[in-house]
Fold this protein.
Amino acid sequence: MSFPSNLPLEDVFASIADGLFTVDTDWNITYFNESAQRITGITQEEAVGCKCWDVFRSSLCDGHCAIGQCMKAGDRIVNKSIFIVRRDGTTLPISISASTLRDSDGRTVGGVETFRDLTEIHVMRQQAKDIYRFENIVGRSQALGKIFGILPRISESEATTLLLGQSGTGKELFARAIHNLSPRKNGPFVAVNCGALPDTLLESELFGYKKGAFTDARTDKPGRFEMADSGTVFLDEIGDMPGKLQVKLLRFLQDKMYEPLGGVAPIHADVRVIAATNKDLEQAVADGSFRQDLFYRLNVVTLTLPPLKERHEDLPLLIDHFLEEFNATQGKSIQGVSEDTLHILLHHDFPGNVRELENILEYAFILCREGFIQVEHLPEYLHPGKPDRQGPDPLRGSMDEIKRRAARRAVERNNGKKMAACRDLKITKDTLRKMLAP
């Protein structure tokens, strides 16, 4: 690449902190600045004249070249996160921007790419994960900080605690944290979803039954309160508890006594109760669907958990946390999310809260084979130009459903060839068959 003698552009390019290189239309490197040499460990003399893929060996060189996309579409790429392999064999995370080079007549003569070393940012993120973790709760937002400040004192007490918050805000996670920080930490933690069981079954699950209490009761069965003796019972979706059981729960909260189905004598259980709901219990009291005396018994200590849209500064930490878990359980080494992907996530309202974020990342994790999760790996409703759905979302289904959709997309992407889809997803044929099973 030549520069006019009266305009020292080469000196300018040599002085910038970002790596910069140019290629001609045959992908031969024509310029390689000092920062590019420092970041890659390859000298300008070695790089100029070589094919760019021989120098960089990046995660985009296998058919997804950034400069190639720019020259083909006449567009620019800005802040795309990828990784390269340095001369010493180490993998280096970088952020790249690329554009087409044209001559004075507008003809394409090559491309230019700048890149920035993200190692320091990744180290800071790793350190932040350790700093901003409370039990298994990740966050540094002001809203969470206030809760973290009082959680140990709440845990030390024996007070009944009510957790309020939208679905997906992590109420069970906070309940477990309270238990783990309490004097009862060596006792059992028993969780019950009051909205997931029919009324008759819920009563027997909570309080157990005696032999002969009903037709199929051939032996005594302990309930969750008996199983949680000396520990904690977490009653999720307490707002869905039927009125008959509300009376029995109220009695237990008053004197720690309950009667199993078919029982004739009360039983004592040393159990702390933590309850949670996404409903407005005060309104439920006003409507007559929830007992006022039970509400006051539950409402000794109340924590309101913030929705994810009010703690967007926690997103990078949560993303790293979930990707670390997925890498460990699925045997991959996904580096993170690209900057344009992070930009999209930062501007999403997350009506499904942390659970929705986890599902989005698991979906993208299935489609991303290596490197960084890119925009194309995200669910379609998050792609630029697509409406940001606030209503029912298929991502809020089960993980099996999410994996099934991802597997179908992989098969479609490979024109129905299942072995090609297996290679695309880096899974076995048996795994693909299980993912596709209804």
User: Anything to note?
Assistant: The CA atoms of residues 29 and 48 lie 5 Å apart.
